[in-house]
Predict the 3D structure of the following.
Amino acid sequence: MEPEETLSSSGPLQVEGVSVSATGTKVFATKLQVRPDDLDFFKHVHASRYQDYVLAARFDQMERCYGASMQRFMELGLGWYVKSFQIRYRRSLGLGDLFEVLTWVEELKSRSAVIGFEIRLLPERLLCSEGSSEYTLINLENGRPANLPSWVREAYAI
């Protein structure tokens, strides 16, 4: 039996745990679940939590998928600061919902990485939100932006 394939209008192709976009970009997934403290007064996930979900997924994926954990960056005196974060909300998440955060590198600049993302409700993979964020590499000793080292460019190769 062939693995089932699904393709969103703007998102990545999923083939039995291996993810690639239509252009061949590597796409990584992290599964999470909505906790009670994620909810707002209206009993759905507060808008600010979606950014937390993307950051949690990136933290997981940096180590598991790119082989470059945040701890490794910090040991080298480097860190990632959020430069910008844009999100479009499509569907709300509620208490106990299982979802996945899909991320991919859209662009590598001299001192930053632009990361695209989608948050999808499982098991149907319904699009809840989508967007992009830019992270600037920082020298932790002086707080100034740092050029992306070659090993970062290789690990984050598009």
Observations:
- DSSP finds three helices and eight strands in the chain.
- The helical segments are 47-64, 70-75, 150-155.
- The CA atoms of residues 106 and 115 lie 5 Å apart.
